[in-house]
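Supplementary Note 2. Why include the ligand at all?

Several targets in our set were suspected to adopt different conformations when bound, so apo predictions alone were not considered sufficient. For every target with a known small-molecule partner we therefore ran a joint prediction. The input for 6-O-phosphoryl inosine monophosphate is given below.
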Amino acid sequence: MTVTVVVGTQWGDEAKGKLVDILAKDYDYVVRFNGGDNAGHTIKYGDQSFGLHLIPSGIFYPEKVKVIGNGVVINPETLMTEIKTVEDAGFSLDKLLISDSAHIILPWHKMLDAIEDEKNAIGTTKRGIGPTFSDKANRATAIRVCDLFNGKLREKLEKIAKLKEKALFAHGKDVNFNVDELATSLEQFSEKIKPFVTDTRFVLNKAIDKNILLEGAQGALLDVDHGTYPYVTSSNTTSGSASTGSGIPPNKITNIIGVTKAYTTRVGEGPFPTELMDEVGEKLRQQGHEFGTTTGRPRRCGWLDLVVLKYTSMINGLDELAITKLDVLTGFEEIKVCVAYEINGQTTEEFPSDITLLEQAKPVYKTFKGWNMSKEDWIKASETKQLPEEVKTYLNFIADQLNVKIKLISFGPERNETMLY
Ligand code: GDP
Ligand code: IMO
Ligand code: MG
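The joint prediction is reproduced in C-alpha cell form.
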C-alpha cells in the first residue's frame, strides 16, 4: 500500500503533470485534490499531448481510477470540454469519479474575479477561483456538486443570483442573471456527470490498501497560508491539503514528492527575488517554452532559489525530489543558485512571511559552471547513466542543501525523457 503525494515546490508549472503521468503506472488511483481550472498540467505520450485542467494526469491509463476530489472547484464548461477532448482522443474515462462535495464555479465567480483582479492586481487566471473559494468559506452562497442533485438547485440559485447582482452592482456592473437558463444548463451538466459523481472520501478510504497517487495543483508559494500572500491562489496547495482535499487521513500518506524546476518561474504578479529581467531570463523563457498552459501568458523566469526550496521542503515534509527541465539549462556559461537573501543589510536563509520584506530581498548567489548538453547527449546519458560532472555537482548541491534525495530527473517533456537519479 502506497499513498503518494505530488506537490509543486515553487510557484507552479514545475511539471507535476509529467511526473504524475510517469508514476501513475504503479498506482491504482490518481486523485486531484485542490485548485481548479487555474491549473494546467501538460502530459505527453507519443504524438498525444494534453493540457489538463481538472482531470487528473492519469488519462493515458484507462484502467486506473481517476478522482476529482472534494478540494477541487469545478468549472462545468471546462470539465465538459476536457471530458470530450480526452474521450475523442480515444482514452476512456469510464473510471472517472467526481466528489459530490466539490464546489462549482458559477458565472458570477468569473465576473467578480475579473473585476476584483483589475483592482487587486494579483494577476489571477480570471477563472473565478478566488470568488468560488470565498463562497466556500462563506457557506450560504456556495453550490456543491451534491446541490445539483438534491432538488433544491433552482431555489438556491435564485437566492444567490440576487446577492451576486448586488455585489456586481457595487462594482458598477448592472447584471441580471437568467436563473432559469443557468439552472437548465447546470441540470444538463449534472445529467452528464451523474455516472461519475459519488462520495469519493468513502471510495478512497475503502481503497486505502491499494496504491493511491495524489496530484497537487499550483505550487507551495501559491498556498493561501504559506505562499507569497496576497499574491497567491485562494486555496491550500501544500501537502497538508492532499488530506483535506481528498478525505484520506494524514497518517495514511506514505510519501511526499516535491517537483522542482531546475530554475524558477512564476505567472502573474508578486515578488520573485531571483527573477531575471535580462537576456538570461529571456533565454530561459525561450529554451523552456515558458508560456502558461492555462492563460498563455509569458512566465517570469529566474535562477533556482534554495531559500524558497528549503522553506517549501520544510512545510511540505518532502521525502523525495523530482528535478525537471534540466535540459533547459544548457548553453549557459554560468548557472546561479540563490543560497540566501540579504534583507535590510541582514543575511538570512529563512523565507520571510511578509512580502514587504521579500520585495527587498537581494539574492546571494553561488555560481556553478554551466554545461552544454544536446537532446542526444541527454538520451545517451540516460542510457549509460553517466552525467557530466557539472550536472552532478549542481544536482548534488541541491539535494545536500535540502537534505532530500533526488528520485528522478527530467530532461524533456516526453515520458521517456526521464532518468532515475
Ligand atoms: P505543471 O502545471 O506543474 O503540471 O506544469 P506545466 O505542464 O504547466 O508546465 C510544464 C511544461 O514543461 C509543460 O509544457 C511540459 O510539457 C514541459 N516539460 C515537462 N518536463 C520537462 C522537461 O524536463 N524539459 C522540458 N524542456 N520541458 C518539460
Ligand atoms: P499549475 O497547477 C502557475 C497563479 C496565477 C496568479 C495566482 C492567482 O499549472 O502549477 P488564481 O486564478 O488561482 O486566483 O490566480 O496564482 N496560478 C498559477 N501559476 N501554475 C498554476 O497552476 C497556477 N494556478 C494559479 O497566475 O498569479
Ligand atoms: Mg501548469
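The chain is about 35% helix and 20% strand. The chain has a mean pLDDT of 97. Comparable summaries for the other entries are listed in the accompanying table.
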